[in-house]
Amino acid sequence: MSEPTTLPIGAGADDERAPPAPGRSAGRLLRDAREAQGLALDGLAASMKVHVRKLELLEADRFDELPDATFTRALAQAVCRALKIDAAPVLALLPAARGHRIEQVSEGLNAPFRDRSARLDPVSWGPFVRAAWAPALLLALAALVWAVPDGFFGGFADRAGEWWQQARSALPQRSAGPAPRPEVAEAPEAASAPATEAMPAPAVETVFSAPPTATGPVASSGASAAGVSDAAGPLQLRADAESWIEVKDAGERVLLSRSLQPGETVTLDGALPMRVKIGNAAVTEVRFRGAVVDIAPMTAENIARLVLK
Questions:
Q1: Contacting residues for 75 by C-beta, under 8 A, at least 6 apart
Q2: CATH 1.10.260.40 fits 18-92, yes or no
Q3: Mean pLDDT for the chain?
Q4: Rounded-to-integer distance, Cα 95 and Cα 28, Å
Q5: Which Pfam families does its entry note (predicted)?
């Protein structure tokens, strides 16, 4: 009966490995594999992003000049992965690693890791603040609207229309050079009246003077033909399409400042002279004391300005 074999203390799996073949080393295996693939040492180092000096020491089996055994084995395993060969025969010829410390071979083998401490972002109070003052703002706006007197928005709309028409008429006047001389259009009966009787007006306004209403059968027939009488007002305005009109009397009191709708006719009476501004002259008819006023000579950019006296 044979006696059991007794192993010496400290023997392990490394002692049971077959001794390497003579003349074969880990560095020689790596060099032969690299040369078999036609790779230069510096090219392999560049692809692995490892310093070429470390690969030279590894292939020369000068492991004592490398940091330690763990580094040497990790570097050899990385080279085997780059050459796509089995790493087991190479690792079997390398010195065993001591301890369990894992070191980073180089920046090329593993991506650098930056330890970033977790930081909590400061709490944003913006949404909470907006949610707090939004109802108060709505209440303030509601109170403001409630306090606005009746008719405010209607008057504002009329003034806005007037400002718009004035702005449109002012733009071409600035670029067109000097304004044309005002033309005086008078009825045939008043053609001999001196021009000095016309009141001074802006350059774009034209003075129209109609003869006073005559008495007798002829005057009554003329009034009936025109369909207008001084009792209802000397000025009559009619719009075939929407047209913004403003009329002021001698005291600068606004008699009319709004848009006439298509087919609408208004009759006005006020202290003379009356200043009339028409925003859409092409579709507006003006009658003064029963006579139709030709506003074409007084129109620029479809805006007519005239003074009636």
A1: 50, 54, 55, 58, 66, 105, 109
A2: yes
A3: 72
A4: 15
A5: HTH_25, RodZ_C
**pLDDT tens digit sequence for 204-253:** 455 666 555 443 333 333 333 333 344 468 999 999 999 999 999 999 99
Rounded CA separation 13/165 (Å): 103
Nearest alpha-carbon partner for 293 in 243, 245, 226: 226
CB-based contacts of 175-180 (< 8 A; 24+ apart in sequence) = 179/203, 179/204
Structure tokens at 290: 């029963």
All structural domains of the chain with their residue ranges: 18-92, 161-308
Calpha distance 232→269 (Å, rounded)? 7
160-to-82, 151, 173, 204, 259 alpha-carbon distances in Å? 80, 14, 20, 21, 12
Q: Are the C-beta atoms of residues 268 and 237 closer than 8 Å to each other?
A: yes
Q: What are residue 167's phi and psi, to 5 degrees?
A: -65, -40
The answer to whether residues 52 and 45 touch, using CB atoms and an 8 Å cutoff, is yes
Q: Are strands 274-278 and 303-308 parallel, antiparallel or unpaired?
A: antiparallel
Q: Count of CB atoms within 10 A of residue 214's CB?
A: 12
What is the residue whose two structure tokens read 């010829």? 93
Q: 282 φ, ψ to 5°?
A: -65, -25
CA dihedral 82, 86, 92, 94 (to 10 degrees): -10
DSSP bridge pairs for 304:
278, 299
The pair phi, psi for residue 14, each rounded to 5°, is -65, -25
Is 300 within 8 Å of 294 (Cβ atoms)? no
**265 - beta bridge partners?**
238
Q: Would you call the peptide bond into 135 cis, given omega within 30 degrees of 0 as the criterion? A: no
244: closest CA among 266, 272, 270? 266
